[in-house]
Amino acid sequence: MVEIDSENQQGFTLIELLVAVAIVGFALSALLINVMGNIGGSEHLRNKTIANWVAMNQLELAQINNRYFGQLPLGVETGTEIMAGQEWFWQLRTTQTPDRAFFRVEVTVYGNSSTDKAPMAYLQGALGNFER
Q: From the CB of residue 38, how many other CB atoms can be counted at a distance below 10 Å?
């Protein structure tokens, strides 16, 4: 039988290596879960940003139609817009304010055609009553 001199022993034991591998495995799995959560969050932020662009486009179109063509849609108008390869559903609501010279315009954007869910973007503005 061969005796091992404990004073000259170098390196790690098998138990120490297994514990180290287990710790690294747990740390990597926790990191992976965190990264996957961040990826889902960034997708949501991307969609909210694009929906906000759609809302800004619709508000700008209402301002252009009002100022240059004298067309101001009163009531509710709905439509779709393709942006970033996705179809967005918007709703434009125009109401008269107490000051007859201005109208309130609200734009709501949804990621799908169902307007009963929470909107992805909501924007409001005011338009002047430009009579020709």
A: 10
Q: How many CB atoms lie within 10 A of CB 109?
A: 26
Low-confidence stretches of the chain (pLDDT beneath 70): 1-9, 114-116, 130-132
Partners of 124 in the β-ladder: 106
pTM of structure: 0.69
Q: Are 59 and 107 in contact (CB under 8 A)?
A: yes
CATH tag for 44-128 (out of 3.40.50.360, 3.30.1300.30, 3.40.50.970, 3.20.20.70): 3.30.1300.30
- For the chain, give every domain's residue range: 44-128
Burial string for 90-106 (b: 16+ CB within 10 Å, else e) reads bbbbbeeeeeeeebebb
Distances from the Cα of 33 to the Cαs of 27, 36, 38, in angstroms? 10, 5, 9
Lookup: tokens for 94: 């125009």
Which of 65, 48, 34, 51 is closest to 127 using CA atoms?
A: 65
As given in the structure block, the two tokens for residue 88 are: 């967005």
